[in-house]
Specification:
alpha+beta; Serine Threonine Protein Phosphatase 5, Tetratricopeptide repeat; 2 domains; 5-stranded antiparallel sheet; about 15% strand
Amino acid sequence: MAVRGVFAAAERAFGLLTEGRSAWWPLATAPVEVESVPFGALRWRLGEADVLVELTATTPVTTRIRIEQSGGDPVDWDAVLAAFASAAGDPGIHQVFGRLLNNETWVRIGDRASLSGEDAEAVIRAAQAQAYHWYQAGGPEERQRAEWLLAHAYTLAGVAERSAHHAERCWALTERHDLQDFDRAYAYLALSRAAALNGDPAGAESLRAKALAVPIADQADADAFRADASA
């Protein structure tokens, strides 16, 4: 048996499991016979294998898929569901969750300069979740900002190694896609804070100076960044 949740409405999931299966199906087998059965389920025949596929709408935009096989040669259904989840993911849904979880992360951070205990765990979970969704449906800017927020969360929590890891990923995306303006400034700031947390005050100050030297076109953005960099 294999079970997986996907970010797709039940109707979209059903379509990809039936007539849309050729777009993602990873198994090199004989053609699959498909039979619809009541209550949101399908029955597949793969050679000698009888496979029951159950769909459950967990929310209006997410669906739980459960697969159970009887007879026939063993099949790696976890791999099948992974391929299906990749094909079924609705970019619009990922973008909604990305924005919601980004906001959730900031609400949990509030105006605190550090985090510990359950507060730190909650912020890190929210930051990780928003990053997952932006990596599914975001462009370079969204992914870079997602990495920045992860670095910030780990910095506030005092987790030096992870702070540096995500600050470096943020910077790599900044360089790879030639991001400028406040995205570049904040990437330097993430590196600066990670350096300070990892016991490199001279490196931190040098990186902070580079952050402050980045031109930011919008005056309100520039003022907000300078206030943040001085905090």
